[in-house]
Design brief:
The complex is a heterodimer of chains A (821) and B (149). By secondary structure, chain A is an alpha/beta fold. Helices cover 29% and strands 17% of the residues of chain A. A seven-stranded mixed sheet of chain A has the order 7-6-18-17-16-8-9, sandwiched between helices. In chain A, strand 19 and strand 20 form a beta hairpin. Chain B is mainly α. Chain B has four helices and no strands. Chain B has helices at 3-29, 34-60, 81-111, 114-148. The N and C termini of chain B lie close together (9 Å). Classes of the chains: A alpha/beta (821), B mainly alpha (149). The A-B interface holds A 132-133, 135-136, 164, 412, 414-416, 418, 422, 426, 429-431, 609, 611-615 and B 79-80, 129-130, 132-133, 135-136, 139-140, 143-145, 147-149. The structure holds iron/sulfur cluster.
Amino acid sequence: MKADRIAEPWGDRTPYRRHGDWPSRVDAHLAEGVEPGAVQKWVAAASLLHSGGDAMDIAVVDGRMAGVRGRAADRVSRGRLGPKDLFGWQANASPDRLTRPLVRRDGHLVETDWDTAMELVTARTRELLAERGPGSVGFYTSGQLFLEEYYTLAVLARAGIGTNHLDGNTRLCTATAAEALKESFGCDGQPGSFDDLDHADVIALFGHNMAETQTVQWTRVLDRLAGGDPPRLLCVDPRPTQVARHATVHLAPRVGTNVALMDALLHETIRHDRVDHDFVEAHTVGFEELSERVASCTPEWAADICDVPAARISEAAELVGTADALLSTVLQGFYQAHQATAAAVQVNNLHLIRGMLGRPGAGVLQMNGQPSAENTRECGADGDLPGFRNWQNDAHVADLARVWNVEPSTIPHFAPPTHAMQMFRYAEQGSIGMLWISGTNPAVSLPELARIRALLAQERLFTVVQDLFLTETARLADVVLPAATWGEKTGTITNADRTVHLCDKAVEPPGEARPDLDIFLDFARRMDFRDKDGGPLIGWREPEEAFEAWKRCSAGRPCDYTGMTYDRLRGAGGIQWPCTEANPRGTERLYTDGITWAHPDDCESYGKDLETGAAVDPVEYRSLNPDGKAVLKAAAYVEPHEMPDERYPFQLSTGRTLYHFHTRTKTGRVAQLDEAAPEVWVEACAADAARLGLGEGDLVRVATPRGALEARLRVTDIRPGLLFVPFHYGYWDTKEGDGPDRGGPGRAANETTITDWDPASKQPLFKTAAAALTLVAHADGRYAPAPTTTASAPSAPGSVPATAGGRQAYATQDSGPGGTS
Amino acid sequence: MKDGIAHTLRALHHGERRLARDLVAVSERHAGEHEVHHVATDLAAWSREHAGRLAEFAAADGLRLDDDRPEPLAGEAPEGLLLLYDLRALHLAATENSLHWEMLAQAAQATRDERLLELASACHPQTLRQMRWTDTLIKQLSPQVLASL
Ligand code: SF4
């Protein structure tokens, strides 16, 4: 059966009952004119444009990609693909891919050969190391490379260069997930599994627009809603998302008030004694302090702060309090706010006091957004040490030094690994002299873009950018290295529920573009990094060898990969870590039998003060949690730093849409996806629009104290007083290329956002700014270029043309035998 | 030697010598307080030794600390170091407050002043958190600032 998968992002229903098996449905899309019989080979991979890890095969015809299809047997998606997977692959063949290295000469980027470019990079590195030491070199990477690449980068940065400055754009995305897990369980590692969606009777989505961020798992929820014994949903989101539309209880709190809401839910849970006291007793510390903290946090108290009726909060509390198997998922609505970690930790607390952990349907998913964000975390490319080792624990550092055969002092561990926002600050004040940016586009994705552009453009800062396209960031670089991407190289990616997939190389990269792994290895070879016996520090050349090296580093750690091989991944499909020889099929859920990694000797972190970010010292942790239980960490609500006032009367939140990924470097080059959401827009509610005399399609200006942008207005059912702008749109496809026209209006949401972050996770705030909204020009019959299928649906149904993809967006859906429940 | 480190060495050298002097002064002023008198005298010796070792260390790198140059003012610190100095000042101020809270709490216990005890126990933990915050930031920032200037 065919469907327009732009108009119907989630495709057809294959209903199933609670505890049943999710039926398979194989989705496929082949290039116009390619018949399935004409495909010469299918090469296994998994999705790159979100964190779902949906398994798929890439169709190859005459050495070129010709389409994709889902893999029915895979545990994650059972054959389904979302719109970005179905169409996104076409970006690989864009005519404007970078095919040769570029270097800056007399202010202009000019083509050169690899040798010249790499010599320039190594020469600058050596100079800086000699003059100013390892602290003058920083690496900013991605959540979209492969595990093998992050691990190699982590070894070369931490033990080769010896710098503390290595982080990923995962800082903007998944840093709070990691931090919240560390705070509660002593260690990173996703507790739950996507399979919990089959078993839960209540699914609570906290700031997680699953319908747009993990479309395939949302398909699973829709299939359960259509089947027997459907789950009830709680949605906490200020926007009218698809999740909200399907929820039993929808709370749309004032942005920046999540902690108050969570404290009220905890208050109600404790007041009604919906507490699993045996679990609390056996597996947690801190219950008393938590009870005290939330004792005064009644629904009425929270109602005032959150601007949500107290009765709704009670209903929500009843929902999560009476579930027999509660699954919670958390994402950016919580993570990109000022009390990010504090709020996410309260979700963990809810599960801990209710004993909702480690069994089918009862689990927490602290989500991430990017395909390999999990790998950035576990490989130590994100501001942690590899294998979830604790930088404050000398035994952990010594163990890592043993794996790398270096002296422990080689690995900087005198202070926490530097987080991205701090790295950019060091670059701004000049103490970092070289920044190597791989697979990410900070000139569009970081807050306060005017500052970021100025910082990157500094003469004294040497920037290396490794990417597929001449992004806004690449335009400001001194050296640009053309990278190969998914489908053109081999490596593994691990999704948000710890499922590892192998992505095999299907086609050759264009021109001279090279896999990121090869680029890092080339650099390491030229720098001649050595271990303590004079052998090469990095002894591998191929992805599979890098994977084997990583396995040695992961051995005995929570993210143990030692039971996996490339061959096993090719045969079995996705496998969830930890996976050892003794446990070759992997591990569905963590904490099925108590808390495993919180012991003072084992834990990845001793925790932080959630309000100040101050480190808890080891002695204190040991006395607080000598037996390594889960820590119930209480938090008090604190008002956001920037609140609306007369000049800036609105709150402003930025976020995503279903059809795009990040800064659109790929999705903006794909006709189906681009046409579904071709331009930036602003959302406001009907009452606010009417009050200001604004309507659908009006050109408006959104301004904050940092900057402004212009966009067309979409009137939706968003929470009153709140504006929303998607953050995907930058300048690469505008005349200027790297920023707004001189003095002209901006297009990127981050022109307006604030440089401020959660004190514990260091994740920047994108959800709470104060903003003004003014008219630039009336619509004149035009509409906002926003999709109607998603949270940006118009408030008056049918008032704007429905989003559709037409013929070019047809994809097949095959539910086949066994496709019914 | 990096300017930032040189500057900090000089500041610490002055600090150790001053602390040695102050310990001796306190010891003399409170000669009748036997514990204070004796221990302070012993501790002064530590600081004198520290100052000596600092001078020796610096001399090996060509920096003279015992040249009687006046103590560098925080305002004269190389750019970047200023932030560290401000954090240092905050930490010291918080420490002072913490000690005052402690005195009040002790007094409250002795006089059974419930109200005062409640006040001190409510506020003192936050003072300690302020100290931990400044300490954490100093730990994080100083490697970068001192090693790069
Ligand atoms: S869009 Fe947001 S959640 Fe998704 S990968 Fe990027 S930063 Fe992460």
